Amino acid sequence: MLPAGLEAPLARLRALAPTGSRASALTLIALLLAMPVAFGVHDLSTTGSLTRLGNNLVDGLSNGAIWALVALGYTMVYGIIELINFAHGDVFMIGSLVAFALWGTLGLGLATVAPLLIAGLLVTLVVAAAASGSLNVMIERAGYRPLRDAPRLAPLITAVGFSFILQNVGLLWIGGSQQTVPDLIGSQDVLLALGGVEITNGDTLAILATAPLVLVLTVFIARTRLGKAMRATAQDPDAARLMGINVDTTISLTFLVGGLLAGAAGLIYALYQTTVWFFQGFTAGLIGFTAAVMGGIGNLQGAVLGGLVIGCIQQIADNRIGTEWTPAIVFGYLVLIMVVRPRGLLGEETRQAG
Amino acid sequence: MIATEGVSKRFGGLVAVDGVDFALAEGAIASVIGPNGAGKTTLFNMLTGLYRPSAGRITFGAHDISRARPDRIMAMGIARTFQNIRLFPTMSALENVMIGQHSRMRAGLFGSILRPPWVGAEERRVREHARETLSYVGLSERLADRTAASLSYGDQRRVEIARALASDPSVLLLDEPTAGMNPRESEALSAFVHKLRDERRLTVLLIEHDMKVVMGISERITVLDHGVKIAEGAPEQVRRDPQVIEAYLGLGGGEGQG
Amino acid sequence: MRPLRNLPLPGDRYLAVALIAFAVGLPFLFETGSPFIDDAVLALAFVVMALGLNIIVGFAGLLDLGYVAFFAIGAYTMGWLGSNFFSGANGGEGFAALVGPPASELPGVHVNFLIVVLVAVAFTTIAGIAIGLPTLRLRGDYIAIVTLAFGEIIGRIAINGDQIRIGGVWDATVAKLPLIPELGDAGLTRGKQGITPVDKIDLPFLDPLTSLDLRSWYFVALALALIVLFVNIRLRDSRLGRAWVALREDEVAAASAGIPIVRTKLLAYGTGAAFGGVAGAFLGSYLNTVNADQFQFSFSIFVLAMVIIGGLGSIWGVVLGAVALSFVNTYLIPDVLNALPHDVGLDFDLTQLSYAIFGFLLVIVMVLRPEGLVPERRRRLEMHGVGAGDRAGAGTDVEIHEGSAP
Asked: Which chain A residue has its CA at the smallest distance from C159's CA?
């Protein structure tokens, strides 16, 4: 059946077999736990209470939920065409800006009553997601599809190009500095306090909005015909094509779904952070990609796990070391992952040699 | 010259090569055969350092090369060709062969930049040697500066062998050298292998599917099936071995093409 | 098919001489303080950097998205060794090495420019190797991300470097060696505020350059560019250059042909980085400031774009790309076309669209002519499907596996 020889079937079999060494997984986990544990110990020995760490983690998980949504988009696209969609973070940023603009159009403000606010936000969710989703698809059609047979460098560069274009759009739209947006949900208002650990409206929103989205996505990928098509194409596009799956459409669909999630994340981000910034996509993109790699690129559960973990690390770094150092720390972790265990915590799921 | 002791290779749950003892005598022409998936190329890849054995030892003369890097193994004198020809496609045939001599050259970073006379002389010498090697393998002179990708399949095979020969190796590993060749070309290759051994004192090990070539050229044949050595010996012996026949049953015995 | 030649055609040689003559004569067509020469100096500095990145990305095929790191290190070397940044050096007396007045009489460390360049080369080469090491076993796009991450980390250190107080550590350790001055209390950088002023280049037997006479700066830059160009051409047609191409096209075959992969990759990173250091040191002096705002990701992409649009791997292409993009950035957009949107009725300057124009250029070039303006002959083949390296959407059939220790 296989004229090519042994490498191809062996590599495929290798992909099915459980991946590699336990030592690297343990090392990575240890590195990830280093900061929370160190500060936890420090807290206990100085103040005798873990409240601060608890707050860090709550904030971290909420941030992380948003990053998880962004990471999912990255990981799905990489899983299916092995491309880092550099523009994905900026698609997320556009989603935020669209949401913000729509609030103005719909007249959503601090004075809006709850039912109208909820309705308005749902509309915004749909519009922002749709905007980001279609944007992602357009980028794929214009920049990546023509370059399917080119060396990997080519679509990566196009992706950077689109990233710059989108950033410029953002720049022209809301200017160069961070822009405060109406605090529609009272993001910093404490909803409940558990033994000193404060859970705010923002935290609750982030988790409660993200969880269903991830759930819907998981069901979609696992149960629906389109979801199965995505998985099949990710594993082996040639075989998928032979099965009658329209690979091009499936790829576009993947970009669409990734974009939808990014747009939703954009709205949640705007509500949570109460600021938007034309440059937020760059940072979000790198954090999102770090999360995707940490969890195992192509692996959906991994992306969510990675997002939550990165969120916590980021929050601890912000709170304990200083926000000016956080990007360096997050990227430092990215490098560490690549050195210690590039396939991530849960292992990669991309196509293998074929 | 080359020997393996109990060499195995596992990929996750799959055992590609399982406890193979193998020895290649100096000056011999030997073959490794077996049905698809038998582990032949994996064995080659271990011999040349692309894979590290999961168990066992590989020795080359007095050296243990089980964990050596591919470029070190090449520098020690074991050269190989690949089943799917792996030339550098946008380099010329000549440049491909010059690359083969990389380990025999000494020009480093500063030598390359400053180009003292000895570096210039080395370049000229290497270029000349590459031309000679190309004509030795029968590549037409005018094709030497052609891009490797633009050459015919047969010529590409020649260039790949030339690249392997360029470093004056003591052992040559050929992975399915007659793949895609017609009987006449295969015969020419067989004759060439003899020439290599006789004129250049090379030890040659082949992976082959073409039984005519295998039977005609080999002094010793090792048969693998599912990663295990099932037979070994002179051609007539192996041809009659019942286990070998059974392993090949369904592939039509005599002239399987890979 | 036209046979390939390894020696330049006689026509090429004449062209090269003509271009160099043109470049030497060019500044005399303008006033010595003219903005055109200013643009030209910047363009030449970018030529140096683009040629450096060309070694890493073009020759060796290692996708480096963090080249700004080397620019930063080169610039900071100039800032450290040529300003009053270390005002506590030598107990406030200042430390001078082979420089004349006024620099030799001021506090701070002041070292001759040529020595600064050597130190910058040393630092950036080490940095290049350090950044390259983690990428050795990674595939193409991961190399991009890791190098990008390093670029960002260095950028962050630049911004926050004031918090990193190295003076005490230095005095307790390195300063104990003979000839090495103490630094007193000192940070690593001065963040966004920047290290300024920076010593003007002071070459032996000549007066220090001034900010009025741009022609002299131009000639220094031209000299650096020509040296770098020479080094590139020599490397391209050498054992090492061939090894880089082989590495780029088929790493497995290259290793099996006797090329030591790790050493060859690290040589690419180190050499490419060194050029960034040279340009960084020069620009640190020319721009008279070394501040963190100069070191952003967009800079890395800017240099990468020069390499790609010029023609990946093609030396003259990269030179052309560097000059072209530099002039588009410093002249075409801000001076010539700036009012264009207003002419069309839109309410902003073209400079506000720089990012988008640039991004658009990248997309257009990759989709329409990925081999660039002056393609390296190999790359033209590669970009249109013939063989080579990492293909978007394909895997490799054999990878150097678990066994080849670096």
From this structure: A324
- SS3 letters for chain C? CCCCCCCCCHHHHHHHHHHHHHHHHHHHHCCCCCHHHHHHHHHHHHHHHHHHHHHHHHHCCCCCCCCHHHHHHHHHHHHHHEECCCCCHHHHCCEEECCCCCHHHCCCEEECHHHHHHHHHHHHHHHHHHHHHHHCCCCHHHHHHHHHHHHHHHHHHHHHHHHCECHHHHHHCHHHCCCCCCCCCCECCCCCCCECCECCCCCCCCCCCCCCCHHHHHHHHHHHHHHHHHHHHHHHCCHHHHHHHHHHHCHHHHHHCCCCHHHHHHHHHHHHHHHHHHHHHHHHHHCCCECHHHCCHHHHHHHHHHHHHHHCCCHHHHHHHHHHHHHHHHHHHHHHCCCHHHHCCCCCCHHHHHHHHHHHHHHHHHHHCCCCCCCCHHHHHHHCCCCCCCECCCCCCCCCECCCCC
Question: Tens digit of pLDDT for each residue in A82-97?
Answer: 889 999 999 999 999 9
Burial class (CB in 10 A: 0-12, 13-18, 19+), C360: middle
* Through-space distance between the first and last CA atoms of chain C, rounded to whole angstroms: 40
Test C348 with A172 for CB contact under 8 angstroms.
yes
**Each residue's pLDDT tens digit, B203-252:** 999 998 888 888 888 999 999 888 888 888 898 888 888 888 887 765 54
**pTM for the whole thing?**
0.88
User: What is the mean predicted confidence (pLDDT) over C339-363?
Assistant: 81
CA distances from B61 to B65, B66, B78, B206 (A): 10, 12, 11, 19
Mean pLDDT of chain B: 88
Residue of A160, A168, A247 to mutate for C, most C C-beta atoms under 10 A = A160
User: Domain residues of chain C, as ranges?
Assistant: 36-292
Question: In this complex, do A157 and C304 lie within 8 Å of one another by their Cβ atoms?
Answer: yes
- Give me the pLDDT at residue A254, please: 94
Which pLDDT does position A354 carry in this prediction?
A: 29
Chains that touch C (3 or more CB pairs under 8 A): A, B
CB contact under 8 A, B14 and A3: no
At C278-329, the pLDDT tens digits run 999 999 999 999 999 999 999 999 999 999 988 888 899 999 999 999 998 8
pLDDT digits (tens, 9 = 90+) for B32-66: 998 887 888 999 999 999 999 988 999 998 899 98
- Residues in B closer than 8 angstroms to A354, CB to CB, are none
Mean pLDDT of C245-258: 93
For an interface test with C, the pick among B73, B82, B102 (most C C-beta atoms closer than 10 Å) comes out as B102
**Inter-residue contact C229 to C133 (CB < 8 Å):** no
Higher per-residue pLDDT: A153 or A101? A101
CA distance B247 to B237: 15
Give residues with Cβ within 8 angstroms of B128, minimum separation 6. none
Predicted-complex ipTM score: 0.90
Secondary structure (3-state) at B205: strand
Test mutation, C136, C239, C245, chain B, max B CBs within 10 A:
C239
Q: Respond yes or no on whether the N-terminal peptide bond of residue C102 is cis (omega within 30° of 0).
A: yes
B147 three-class SS: strand
Q: Which chains touch A (3 or more CB pairs under 8 A)?
A: B, C
CA B156 to chain centre: 15
- Residue C92 clears pLDDT 60, i.e. is over it: yes
Write the CA distances from C205 to A31, C93, C99, C202, C209, integer angstroms.
55, 25, 11, 9, 12
A220: enclosing H helix or E strand: helix A201-223
Tell if the CB–CB gap between C254 and B89 is shorter than 8 Å. Answer: no
Q: For position C255, what pLDDT does the model report?
A: 94
